[in-house]
């Protein structure tokens, strides 16, 4: 099989139609160039060039080989560029897991930005609750997660690193006919004894703990009437006048007409946050560039 250098030499001769000019173009003397062409013809078992003392012409086989040589050289150069970009983390694949609530605002913003900034990185997306994401990261089934804080991330032995990318405000979701839907700004104390639609332990342990701490500090006890996993289901139940709910401000992107979302006074410790998480020993060369772009996006 011929090598790439022989193909380049043949292309130079075919384009110049002169061994001397082709040799000068390749920074060779004419004799080594002639030997390369002869070796190429011997390897292929065909005559590629008709040589006279005055001219060089392509044979029919030479014309066919010239077209293929162009293709092979272009493919080799493209392979080199793509490999170098992959090594620099500019192309490849990132497997990104995310919570359902992050899909209302944060995830679309990240995907849109990464597609512009890193167009040769493919994103493979998978929705998971936060605990499932932590397990997937530990097992190297995903590269990056968009998740809520959890006890497992506080373990000093965890291989997972995190960065906070979003701090949200809590909003009070109430039916449009509810007394708290209008008037003075509601407070946490206004929820004492209220029917509360809240999070299921399976997917919402972070919010359960956050709200329990908030209610205990305020000295109140709402009545939990329903528990669900998804934010849109929670708002749907509020709209059906089942109860009220405390939700992250990403809920404004859902837009349910029967629900009023109102800011509620709460301490800074009650602000829900969303984390970017990854394994520190993940060898994916795309990860550093992806991570820096997401963090920069958050800084903006």
UniProtKB/TrEMBL annotation:
Q: Does the keyword RNA-binding apply?
A: no
Of the GO CC terms on this record, one is: protein-DNA complex
Q: Where is the HTH lysR-type domain?
A: 2-59
Task: Tell me the superkingdom of the source.
Answer: Bacteria
Answer whether the UniProt record assigns the keyword Transmembrane helix to this protein.
no
- Coiled-coil positions are none
A GO molecular function term, named singly, is:
DNA-binding transcription factor activity
Which InterPro entries does this entry report, sorted A to Z? Answer: LysR_HTH_N (IPR000847), LysR_subst-bd (IPR005119), WH-like_DNA-bd_sf (IPR036388), WH_DNA-bd_sf (IPR036390)
Which keywords fit this entry according to its UniProt record? DNA-binding, Transcription, Transcription regulation
Protein family (similarity comment): Belongs to the LysR transcriptional regulatory family.
Protein name in the entry: LysR family transcriptional regulator
